[in-house]
Amino acid sequence: MAQAYKAETDSGGSGPERQGSRLRRLVDGWRGDPGIWRRGLITAGIAVLIGLVMLLHAQIPNGVGNLGSLTETFLPWLGVFVPVLLVIAVVRKSATALIALLLPVIVWLNAFGGLITDKSGGGGDLTVATHNVNADNPDPSGTARDVAASGADVVALEELTSSAVPTYEKALADTYKYHSVQGTVGVWSKYPLTGTKPVDIKLGWTRAMRTTVDTPKGQVAVYVAHLPSVRVKLDAGFTAGQRDDSADALGEAISGETLGKVVLLGDLNGTMNDRALNAVTSQMRSTQGAAGDGFGFSWPASFPMARIDQIMVKGVEPVSSWTLPETGSDHLPVAASMDL
């Protein structure tokens, strides 16, 4: 019996040794295989192509179907292919593919690595939120209450319909003493609003506005905008011409702002990477990029793939930025706190 027990114990103790032996055999198999440099050339080529697209995305022309803007909208998602290619490279025992994968890994980490860390802080003089509430929202009252529950001092809503405005006004009245609706966008504030007016973004109807919020720490110019939607069509590509023209007009209005502290809230139907928004993004900072936790994707609400709902600032310091829980809209609300 003692011998039998000893045999079992010895057998169990050999587990680590067998695992080590398998690892050594794997390494020895790679070391002695001259084909590791010849196999996986297609995988290596795909890895290099993905890396170059991420590195040189600004050189992709927009002349054909706005291909450059389309690529930039979903640019972070190119990193999803890296682990897939890694598995293929390991299975194929391709040293060439493994080395080639270093290019997309390095480029992705350089471009987006800072977004996967939590840069949010505490406090802040002003908290703001913005939400495209969706014209077909089945529960506007619930949506309004959800956004107000964020604790925001200033709330911007986009895609307001004339029939739904009274519902939002009633639901937000207890929390926000001041508000103004211009066309299909509106601002609700705990602090007084002055100098409120529509902003012409070349659409023929009002989808943008500007107001001054008189906070205890001074005046802040708040812009709210809902830029035109973009579409992906087989015959026309990424149709964004109207959105691009409106972005230029919005950027021009913000550049002419006389107040030093400026906040932009809204659905810009584009990401910070999209060159078509340069007129705006070149002069303002994204709160998510500066003080957010993760990518902060806001659309579509059921499976967020892009942050097209933006909070951007000039002359103030972002403290934190985050997305709010799903409402009855197809967008997620986003919020941010900042020091004035």
From TrEMBL:
Residues 1-20 are annotated as: Disordered. The chain crosses the membrane at residues 41-62, 74-91, 98-116. Keywords: Membrane, Transmembrane, Transmembrane helix. The keyword Disulfide bond does not apply. One of its GO terms (molecular function) is catalytic activity. Residues 129-331 form the Endonuclease/exonuclease/phosphatase domain. It holds the Pfam family Exo_endo_phos. It comes from the Bacteria. This is Putative Flocculation protein FLO11. The lineage of its organism: Bacteria, Bacillati, Actinomycetota, Actinomycetes, Kitasatosporales.
